[in-house]
Amino acid sequence: MKNDLSTYLKVRDEMKTGDLLQFRGHSLISRLIEWRTGKYSHSSLVLRLSEYEGLERRRFTMSAEPGGVMLFPLSRYLEGYDGEVWWFPLKSEWNENRQRIGENAAFFAGVKYDFPSLFKQLLVKVSSSSRRLFCSELCFVCYGFTGKAPNPSEMPNLGIFDENRITKIISKR
After folding, report:
1. Contact criterion met (CB below 8 Å) for 152 and 42
2. Alpha-carbon dihedral 162, 164, 170, 173, rounded to 10 degrees
3. Count of alpha carbons within 13 angstroms of residue 164, beta-carbon side
4. Are 144 and 132 in contact (CB under 8 A)?
5. DSSP one-letter code for 75
6. Exposed e or buried b for every residue in 139-166, given b needs 16+ CB within 10 A?
7. How many CB atoms lie within 10 A of CB 3?
8. b (16+ CB within 10 A) / e for 13-40
9. Each residue of 59-102: pLDDT tens digit?
10. What angle do CA 54, 64, 14 make, to 5 degrees?
11. For residue 19, which of 135, 101, 129, 100 has the smallest C-alpha distance?
12. Verdict on whether the full-model pTM lies above 0.85
């Protein structure tokens, strides 16, 4: 069963490179992460590739997945997601950083998933690294932060998102 993308399609044109997507899933691993860390189980970044002809309206997401850091067409990623998804737009003061965030995300494409740190993160904070990445760690380093990697539920607390524009784009099935 595919998700209803009508809310996503209403805000898609406003989504820009570097905006955050926050996920709350229904899978066993998602529920375990949410139980330990809070509301969210996964984080990913929005990317626009508008310099390529025909992709002006298309949005992508860069996500750390078990197979590594990968780029996905956002609509396809959302239509099959089993859970809820929120869009967290960056504050306007961060607009000058969007190019760098996108370049960082592209640089990390193909980096292996950080399974050891993911499981450690459920018990204690781990330092961010770019050798292997889990989802919120990927977003954190793409934004240019260093230090202890946040879990997905801590990402909204970075202070860089426009809280007045946060939108739930996928609801429970």
Report:
1. yes
2. 130
3. 2
4. no
5. H
6. bbbbbeeeeebbbbbbbbebebbeeeee
7. 21
8. eebbbbbbbbbbbeeeebeebbeebeeb
9. 999 999 999 999 999 999 999 999 999 999 999 999 999 999 99
10. 40
11. 101
12. yes
Beta strands 112-113; 83-88: pairing state: unpaired
Spatial neighbors of 15 by CB under 8 A, at least 6 apart, are 46, 48, 59, 74, 87, 89
Q: 45: which residues sit within 8 A by CB, 6+ positions away?
A: 17, 18, 19, 20, 21, 61, 62, 63, 101, 105, 138, 139, 142
* 158 has a pLDDT exceeding 70: yes
In residues, how long is the chain?
173
